[in-house]
Write a structure and sequence with these properties.
Blueprint: E1 5-6, E2 9-10, H1 11-15, E3 35-42, H2 47-61, H3 66-85, E4 94-102, E5 105-112, H4 136-143, E6 146-151, E7 156-163
Antiparallel strand pairs: 1-2, 3-4, 4-5, 5-7, 6-7
Helix pairs in contact: 2-3, 3-4
């Protein structure tokens, strides 16, 4: 799985203050028009930093608050990494990343043609040692207000939703 560092910040630093974060969507009027984008990448490791950079650029383009740009960058990095590294798919297959911003909700969905299931791995070994990886979906669960997996006829989609307060960022 992906290193626990993204943008020079450790996963522990990001996850610690999120434990008490409310898990509901903010409510209220939104004046922003819905926005969508879909990007396809080759299913190989060099696509991960490209997808991460695109997420950061898109957050800036859509005028998301800096902390939401960080959340989006982490979520996309982890989901694309999982699709690239852990999925069993045919050579030359693609990974699709779809973004949809509507009202106060940003949804990112990573779709691949790979077989296999998605699961959250324990991050520590039974003897108390810290595992070197396996925190990707834990990070996604901590940063997103909701996430899940949708099986497809071919492959699956792993999605995450991030609440976006209209006061904090959409233009």
């Amino acid at each position: 799985m992906h290193s626990t560092y993204c943008g020079g910040v450790s996963a522990r630093t990001v996850l610690a203050p999120l434990a008490a974060r409310p898990r509901t969507r903010p409510r209220g009027p939104s004046m922003a028009e819905p926005r969508s984008l879909q990007v396809r990448y080759r299913r190989y490791r060099p696509s991960v930093p490209v997808a991460r950079a695109k997420a950061r650029d898109l957050a800036k383009e859509w005028s998301l608050a800096p902390h939401l740009a960080d959340f989006l960058e982490w979520v996309v990095t982890e989901l694309v990494t999982n699709a690239v590294i852990h999925g069993r798919a045919t050579r030359g297959s693609r990974v699709s990343v779809a973004y949809h911003l509507d009202d106060d909700l940003l949804r990112v969905e990573v779709r691949d043609a790979a077989s296999g299931s998605v699961r959250v791995s324990p991050s520590d070994y039974p003897d108390g040692e810290v595992a070197p990886g396996g925190r990707g979906l834990q990070i996604v669960a901590a940063l997103a207000n909701d996430w899940g997996v949708e099986p497809r006829v071919i492959g699956k989609s792993v999605w995450a939703e991030i609440a976006v307060s209209s006061k904090e960022g959409t233009a």
